[in-house]
Model the fold of this input.
Amino acid sequence: MIFKPSWRSLLLSTTTVFAVGLSTPGAKADIPDENYQPVLAHLLGTVMPPKIDEFHAASEELTEGFRDFCSDPDNGGLEETRAAYHAAMDIWQEIQPWRMGPLVANGRDQHIEYWPDKHGTAARQFRKLMFDKPAAYTDPEQLSGASAALQGFPALEEVLFADDHGNQMIAADENGVFLCQYGTAIATNLGTLSGELQAEWPDFATAMENAGPDSMDYPSAKFAATDLYRALHEGLLIISTQKLARPLGENAEDARASRGESPLAGRSLRNIEHNLIGLFAIYDGTWGDIGEEGQGLAALIDNSLLDRSFKLNWQTVADTVADLPPSVAEVLVQSDGYATLSDLKGQIEFLTMLVENDVGGNTQLGGGFNALDGD
Amino acid sequence: MEYQRRNFLKLMGVGGAFTLLPVGLVRAATTPNPEDRAVYISASAGEHDDYYVSAFNASGKILFEQALPGRGHDIGLRPNHVDVAAVERRPGLYGLILDRHTGEVRAKLHCPEDRRFYGHAIYSNDGRYLYITENDFDHARGVVSVWDAEDSYRRVAEFDSFGTGPHELHLMPDGEHLVIANGGLHTHPDQDGRTPLNISSMEPNLSIIERRTGKLVHQAALKHDWHKLSIRHLDVAANGTIAAGFQYQGDLTDQVPLVGIWQPGSEIRPIEAPDNVQYRMRQYCGSVRFDASGQVFGISCPRGGLVTFWDAQTNDFLTHIAAPDGCGLAATNQAGEFVGTSGLGNGWRMDAIRRKRVELPDDSHESLHWDNHLRRIQA
Done:
C-alpha cells in the first residue's frame, strides 16, 4: 500500500486526535436488542424506498429516452440518452452496495449489472450478438431470460459507448437499428427489474423490522442489523479489492483502465463516488435529502468523538474521489496517476479498518466467534 | 423452492401424506425417548482465551468442562468406548484422549516436530485405530497419521492424504476406507500456520484411501474455475453418499457453489441454494452433518448466521434456518432434526422438515462460545 504522506497524515491524525479517551468496545454492556429496531426501521423503511423509487424512475426515463432517440436519431438525442444512462447508473451505484434481500434475490443485482466480468463474457457475447442480431434480444421479455451479461448496464454501456455504435444508431443502418432496438429492450428490462425491486422491498423491510425469536430468517433485530453492517463493510471491501485493485493490477506497468467498472462510459471512479454516498447512508442515516442524520448505525454508537472522527475520515475520502476525474483512464495517463489511485485504495482500506474496529465494535455487529475465526 | 419443499414434506410423511419413514424413526409417545439420554460434546471457549471440551445433555445442561491447552476443533468418538479424541485446531500440537463421561484426560498425543494437527480425528469401527489429519508443512503435503488406541495411542503409521491442507476425514460405511477433504491450502508454522500461501495455485480434492494400507482408491476435484473452493468439511451417509461444504478463497462477489455431493467413482456434483440464501451463506460453510435418516443433511454457515438444509436424494436445497454465529451441528435420533450450537453461546434444536428452531431450555450452555463442530453421543 502506498500512501501520499498528506493523506496518510490527515486520516491518521484525525483518528488519533479523536481516539484519545475512547473506551474499548469490549468493556461496554450489551446493546439491548430493541435499540437495533429503530435503525432497521429508519434505513429499510424510510431511507431506502424513495431511493428505489428514484432508481425505478430513472430506468423508466432511460427507456423513454431510448425510444425518443431511436424514433428520430441524431447527435443531440444520443447525448440525451447517454445522460439518462448516467443518471440511472448514478442512483444504481448508490443502491448497489445494499446487497441484501430483494436486491440479491433471483440474481437481480447481477442482472442489473453483471460485473466484474472476469472472463470477458459480456464483450464476447456482445460480438456474437452483433453478428447474429437475433430478434429475441429486442424483446424485453425474452431478453430477461438471456445471459445476465447481455441484459443490464454493461450491455447498455456497449450499446451507447463502444466502438462506432453511436454513429451507427444515428445512421440507422442495419447495425444501428438493431442496437436501438436492443438498447431499448435493455432499458425496458432495467425498468422491470427496478420495478420488481420496488415491489418486493416493503415485505423484506417489514420482515427485518419485525425480527424476533419466531422468525426463521431474522431471530433478533441485532441479527437483522448485521446485514446492514455487512453491506457497509463489504461495500468498502468491494471498492478496494475489485473496483480499484482490478484496474491497478500488480504494478504501474500492469495497470489497465479496461479492467475497471464501466470503462467505456468513462465512469469507474464516478461509480465509487456514488457507492460512497449509498454506503454512508447506512452509517449516518441520511442519503441526499432523505433520512435523518445520526439515525443509521451511528445511532448505536454512544460516543460522539468517535462518530465525529469517523465522519471526518469518510468525508476526506469522499472529497478525494470527488476531486478526481470520473474515469480511471483519465487518472492513469497522468504522471502520478498510478500513485493517486493507489493512495485512494489505501484510504478506502483505512475506512474499512475503521468500520471493522470502530463501527463493528461499538455497534456490536462486527463480531462472531466462528464467523470471524472459524476453520 | 416451495415446490421442492412440499414434495419433500410428502416423502417425509409430514402434511397428511403417507409416510415412508422406517417405523423405528418414529417417536413412540409411550416409550422413553433415547434423545433424552443423548450427550452432546464439542470444543468450546470462555471469555479469556480459555479453551475446553464441554459436554451438555439434550436440555442444554452442561455436564462437564475439561480445560484444553489451546483451541480445539472437532471431537473423534471411539465406538463402544469411553474415549473421545480432541485434537488441537490447525496448526495443532496436542491431542487429548478424554473420558466422554467426565472429561478426564486418559492419554496425550504429541504431534511430531515436522507435522501439525489439523483439528479432525476419526476412529476405526473396532475402536483400535485413531486417524488424524496433519500437515507435513515442509513438503506442502497432507498426511493422515494412525495411532494405536490399544497400545497407549502409539503413532504407528502415516499415510499420504493425496492433497494439501487435509481437514475433515470420515470412515466410509464399509469401515475399511477413509474419505479425506483436502482443502488445498498450504500453510506453514513459520508464517503463523494459518495464512494461506498458495491461493492462486491451490488444488483441493476429495480422496478416499484404504485405511490399512493408505492406498488411494478414489479422488475427485472440482473444475479448475472453482479451484479456490477449499473443500474442508464433509459427512458420509450410510449409503456412502458424501456431502461436502466449501470455503471460498476468491472474491466476495464471485458466484460459486458452496456445497457438493459426491458418489465415489463419479464427479463431485455442486449444488446451490436460491440466490438470496446462497448470498447469505457468505462464501463459507462451517460444518456438515447428515440426519438420522441419511436423507437430509445440514450445512452451517457461521459467517452468514444460517444453517442450510438439503435433500440428499434429489440434491435439492430444502430450507434454511437463521442461527447467528451458528456452526456446530449434530443429528438427533429424529429424521430431519439437528442440534446446533453457536459461538454466541446458543444451543438450538432445529427441525429441517417443519422449519422450526427452538432454544435448548437449560441456559447453562450459554456461558461458552461453542466451536466449529458438535458430536452426539448416544448414552
Summary: Residues 5-21+31-41+210-365 of chain A form one domain. Chain A touches chain B at residues 99, 101-102, 104-108, 110, 116, 118, 213, 215-220, 222-223, 226, 230, 234, 237-238, 241-242, 367-371, 374-375 (CB under 8 Å). Residues 67 and 175 of chain A are 17 Å apart (CA to CA).
